[in-house]
Amino acid sequence: MTLLKIATVGHPVLRRPAQPVPEADIGKPALESLIEAMVETMRDASGAGLAAPQVYVPLRVCVIELAENPRYPGAGPIPLMILINPRLSPLGFAADGTLPWGSGISMYEGCLSVPNLRGRVRRPRRVAVEARDRLGAPIELLAEGVFASVIQHEVDHLDATLFVDRADPKTLTTLTEYERHVSRDERIVDEGALPE
Ligand code: NI
């Protein structure tokens, strides 16, 4: 098992846009080793996802998995997914660029690169995803709800963006205060899953 060191906020690697994986490298042993190590590192740290810049590798690769995660109780399982060179099209924006009520999901997000902090981020609750899988096969899917939030958080890492850049600053909280003061109902608010 290979556990990789995780870069924490302040390290420049987290603030540099990642480079696309060259077509010829997909499926090759070097990339496979990186992906395996990323999956093991994510699982060991109880993360819901991990992007390559978080392990000091400036490539457009991320891994996502949410299986009864103690950090995100009630967020529902997401099977292991490897996204190479992902492209996202967030859905639900109005013509004026705002995200109307019903099209968003607000979640208290955390990040393995921002230890001991949570903060509320509102994102589109539906996003079209295009990527390659680890063998190079095309992935095309529509992600909704928590899955859409997690994917956007991970792809943000590839674009040098952290959740703290998008969080409502007044909601930032240490994990201890989060457990004490943020009720279960506030932790995930999926507007599309609520009654009108
Ligand atoms: Ni993160």
Give an account of the 3D structure.
The chain has a 5-stranded antiparallel beta sheet, sandwiched between helices. The protein has helices at 29-44, 146-158, 163-166, 175-181, 184-187; strands at residues 49-51, 61-66, 78-91, 104-111, 114-124, 126-132, 138-144, 173-174, 188-190. The longest helix is centred in the first third of the chain and has 16 residues, at 29-44. The protein is an alpha+beta fold and 196 residues long. It is globular and about 45 Å long. Bound molecules: nickel (II) ion. The site of nickel (II) ion has 5 residues, from α2.
Summarize the structure.
With 196 residues, the chain is an alpha+beta fold.
Q: What's the Cα radius of gyration?
A: 16 Å
Q: Quick one: overall form?
A: globular
Approximately what portion of the residues adopt beta-strand conformation? 25-35%
Arithmetic mean of pLDDT: 94
Oligomer: single chain
Order of helices and strands: HEEEEEEEHHEHHE
State the helical fraction. Answer: 10-25%
Counted by DSSP, the helix tally is 5
Specify the structural class.
alpha+beta
Bound molecules: nickel (II) ion
**Count of individual beta strands:** 9
For the termini, the CA-CA separation is: 48 Å
How would you write the strand order of the largest sheet?
A: 1-2-3-6-7
| Main sheet record | 5 strands, antiparallel
Runs in which pLDDT lies below 50 for 5 or more consecutive residues are none
Which features does this protein show?
5-stranded antiparallel β-sheet, binds nickel (II) ion, alpha+beta, 5 helices, single chain, 196 residues, 31% strand, 4-stranded antiparallel β-sheet
